[in-house]
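Q: Sequence in, structure out?
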Amino acid sequence: MVRWGGGGSEGGACLPHTSLGDAAVTMATLCPTWRHPDPVSPLLQLSLLLLLLLLPGPATVLGMEDAAFPHLGDSSQPLPRACPPRCSCPRADTVDCDGLDLRVFPNNITRAAQHLSLQNNQLQELPYNELSRLNGLRTLNLHNNLISSEGLPDEAFESLTQLQHIYVAHNKLSVAPQFLPYSLRVADLAVNQVTEIFPLTFGKKPALRSVYLHNNQLSNAGLPPDAFYGSEAVITLSLSNNQLSYLPPSLPPSLERLHLQNNLISKVPRGALSRQTHLRELYLQHNRLTDSGLDATTFSKLHRLEYLDLSHNQLAAVPAGLPRTLAVLHLGRNRIRQVETDRLRGARKLRYLLLQHNQLGAAGLPVGALRPLRSLHTLHVYGNGLERVPLALPRRLRSLVLLHNRVAALGAHDLTSTPGLAELNLAYNRLTSAHVHRRAFRSLRALRSLDLAGNQLTRLPTGLPTSLHTLRLQRNQLRALEPEPLAGLDELRELSLAHNRLRVGDIGPGTWHELQALQVLDLSHNELSFVPPDLPEALEELHLQSNRISHVGPNAFLSTPGLRALFLRANRLHMTSIAPEAFLGLLHLRVVDTMGNPEQVLVQLPPTAPRRPQAWGL
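A: Exactly. Output:
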């Protein structure tokens, strides 16, 4: 008779113990009391073994390396995940070995991995046998390693049939992989030394969306004409910072963003962009484009183009055939001498026109040349040779930047066509007080910022808009301040009068009276001998550095209780030049700068201040 069960009882069945997790257990382990008190026939033994094998087995544990691994029973504690040493595995399908200074590819990565990060290590090669078994990978991040093309075998990616994202930027590849998986969506090979790609590197990838090849050594010879054949979903292609001499043909027709800046491109072949009707952004700055390298059809088929950057080239004229959808046109740092009216007529939706640092002279912007641009918001023409403000500008213009030109006069009607102007920058021109009409700014009722720095003004302009928030007049030749030009500027928050020739006696009584909102006042680099009296009450920041101040009296700041920062460096102050009571009541004072005076200055801070200010120069 065969006896089953524990403790010597008869008639019981010994089932596998639920706490066992080792598939290699023996029958004696599963049933430690199984014994043969009597001889049993081999046939009966075989029958019993078959009976045990036919009993229902436990469910497998998900997340282990081999899904068929027989784990017996359930456990109250989760089984540990297989994870390479020093790496982290936050999920069953994710292995993160970022920044571990690895020199060898980990050899025990779970086959269940879908996302593998090995970036910021020192890997030089990918072993085919290790990579090929990870056929479930969807993301492979090899960014910033030392991998060469020799260390990346051609067959390395053949088994990765589900790979969607590959990042191999910042390595040492000299040629691209000959084959990348059909399933690919994003490929980043930027910042390598790639000189050649192949037809199946990016070709025949119907799901491919983004390709990054910037900062390599690609020439047109290394880019085959069928490089993107069969990959007609690509929307972003970056080929900037390479050695291309002309715009590559046969680019994907689905492109929306194309980066070709910082190459050697001197021409765009006729029809090269005729199929890219979805293109919205085109970057061609820092190349060698000339007028002969473009024609009237170059951009005419780009019916969705919104952003075009042609700056830092050798263009002498605005390109023809610009699409009417264009919103931003960047033509800065070319050789343009004149803007022809008909060249911009088609771009009626243009909002930002950037023409800085060209060769626009007195006739560079003819009257009405920009009038068709009814939506124009911003016009940059700084760094040219314009002698007056362009006339008949679009009425909706909000920002006009004309600094570093040769404008010598402002007439009464020069700015009347732009009543909505919010920013006007005429800094570093040749304006004199005698040639700025008293009504020059009268129509600019929405003006917030006016910059007249670096001119030759000897007095404040009159008729300033009451809407001003910022007024910059530094580096002129101002010798006096009178209250009349500042009257009504009750919204002014920042006033810069630095680098002029102002003395306290030349500041008329009541000059600051109406500047009730003024928070920042810069009077540095003038000829002041003491702190001007009756400063605006709202003042928070006062710059008086590099003057001739030798004494600060006890009542110097009575009118400015909200002062937070005071700059008195590089004056003529001595140790006891500041009266002990000068800072009483300045509860918000945080900075007192007295560096660069003849002696270290003794600064006594108000004892009732909520926290100790930073006093420089003690």
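Residues 42-53 form the longest helix (12 residues).
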